[in-house]
Write a structure and sequence with these properties.
Elements lengths: L2 H14 L3 E18 L2 E19 L2 E7 L5 H16 L30 H18 L3 E20 L4 E19 L2 E11 L7 H14 L9 E7 L1 H10 L6 H5 L20 E3 L22 E5 L2 E2 L6 H7 L7 E2 L8 E2 L4 E3 L6 H8 L2 E8 L1 H4 L6 E12 L2 E14 H4 L3 E4 L4 E3 L3 E6 L2 E9 L2
Parallel strand pairs: 7-14, 13-19
Antiparallel strand pairs: 1-2, 1-4, 2-3, 4-5, 5-6, 7-20, 8-9, 8-13, 9-10, 11-12, 14-15, 15-16, 16-20, 17-20, 18-19
Helix pairs in contact: 1-2, 3-4
């Protein structure tokens, strides 16, 4: 059955059965990926999936049901399951079916051109990527990950209050990881690219980036423990920001799980620290005009000039706290419940590029990545102890690679002690592609080494 016809019939029967205020959340997506190993296809996936969640109020209780079958026979089953679920749930703070906003921004997050490229061309690109990496340097011993992938999806939110919204988006990506060896020393490096334009993927450039990253770390060794000036490179600092996003959630505030509780309007970071949630970022990996409850999204400073401006809310937490929803209600899938998350969440860049930051630092460390960030950082206390690697810098120039060191401190202290913020904003694919940061310079950081 056509999805629009299915929803129309579902709503008619739901009203007949006595449901009050009900809503459909529908998603439909497809994905393709090919992984290459030693010139051959190691893994190939080409899949589609769709599903629908139905929620509504029955006898004063909000309940849910789900289906992936859009035959007419599924309609009564959906309604029956919702009614059954409502009867066994304990009453909680009432969720809301949202009537919608007066207008929504038009965000084009979909480009059909990449889907018109033949699959053979995409496989050819992935094979070229591996081949180029092996050609660049004799020290490349293996390419342990070489992937081209793409995905597209659409969502639709329709409810009994007149809300009727839909959108679609897509992206493609390449990811490459190489292993280099010199003597007994083995190091890894990686590169990635995200785009909606197939012509943006250049196998030689990506291979060069991955190999150079790996080769640069050959000969790395530890340094003496002490306090150092450090630059945390963009993707590494983005990983810290990503691990701490939960402290801005209205749910965490309500449960007393954030040190930012009651801190709106107070200084929580250096004046130059501006943290933005921007669902309208052009080309952003998570740009959307409305959230998964149908609330209009908005670009907003969460921290502006070091001052905490507000929290992120869905409808439920906003109602509990007596504030307006911020349009940050999100679902992990059509089956998921509404949680809270940012969209394109990043530290606003400033004027100095990485080379200028290195010159300003003079002597110190450039930290390029953190290991074990989710086990080594406590998002409630902010305390962290992270394995890291990078380069020792003298007079603004790289002297040698460094590894087997640990960076320890507290996140809430860290953002109060940033010296300089760079201009090299980058989003942190493949781990959390909607979290971004430029590189940052920090003085007097504690490093444990030899």
């Amino acid at each position: 059955m056509n999805i629009d016809k299915f929803i129309e019939e579902l709503f008619r029967k739901a009203e007949e059965r006595g449901l009050k205020d009900f809503e459909v959340y529908y998603s439909n997506g497809k994905s393709f990926s090919v992984k290459i190993y030693n010139g051959e296809i190691d893994d190939y996936k080409n899949s589609t999936g769709m599903g629908l969640s139905f929620r509504g109020i029955y006898n004063g209780q909000m309940a849910y049901s789900y289906t992936e079958n859009f035959h007419e026979s599924s309609i009564d089953i959906l309604i029956d399951e919702l009614i059954d679920n409502a009867s066994i749930l304990e009453k909680d703070f009432l969720e809301e079916i949202y009537a919608g906003d007066s207008s929504y921004l038009n965000i084009n997050n979909y480009d059909e051109s990449i889907e018109k490229v033949e699959i053979d061309e995409k496989i050819k690109l992935a094979k070229e990527l591996e081949l180029e990496a092996k050609k660049i340097d004799s020290r490349v011993k293996s390419v342990n990950y070489c992937l081209y992938g793409e995905g597209s999806g659409e969502r639709k939110i329709v409810n009994s209050k007149g809300l009727n919204l839909e959108d679609k988006g897509n992206d493609a990506y390449c990811y490459l990881a190489v292993v280099v060896k010199e003597g007994e020393d083995t190091k890894t490096g990686s590169a990635f690219k995200i785009s909606k334009n197939f012509e943006d993927f250049n196998a030689k450039d990506l291979a060069k980036e991955a190999v150079e990253e790996a080769v640069a770390m050959l000969g790395a060794k530890s340094i003496k423990s002490g306090e150092y000036s450090i630059i945390i490179k963009n993707r590494a600092f983005a990983s810290l920001i990503g691990a701490m996003t939960g402290i801005f959630s209205g749910e965490a505030i309500e449960k007393g799980l954030s040190r930012f509780e009651g801190k709106i309007g107070t200084k929580v970071a250096v004046e130059k620290f501006n943290l933005i949630d921007n669902p309208h970022l052009e080309g952003g990996g998570s740009s959307k005009a409305f959230d998964d409850e149908g609330v209009r999204t908005s670009c907003k400073y969460i921290i502006e000039k070091g001052i905490l401006k507000g929290y992120l809310h869905n409808l439920k937490t906003a109602k509990k706290m007596g504030v307006e929803a911020t349009g940050n209600g999100q679902k992990g899938s059509y089956k998921g419940s509404i949680s809270i998350a940012p969209f394109n969440f990043y530290l606003e860049p400033q004027d100095l590029d990485l080379e200028e930051l290195k010159k300003k630092m003079g002597t110190g460390l450039l930290l390029t990545e953190f290991g074990g960030i989710h086990s080594g950082l406590n998002s409630i206390s902010g305390d962290f102890s992270l394995i890291t690697s990078g380069f020792y810098i003298e007079n603004g120039e790289i002297v040698r690679p460094v590894n087997q060191i640990t960076f320890a401190g507290n996140y809430f202290d860290l953002i109060k002690n940033i010296d300089t913020i760079g201009s090299d904003l980058e989003f942190n694919f493949p781990s959390v592609s909607h979290i971004g940061s430029p590189s940052v310079l920090i003085r007097n950081a504690k490093i444990a080494g030899e």
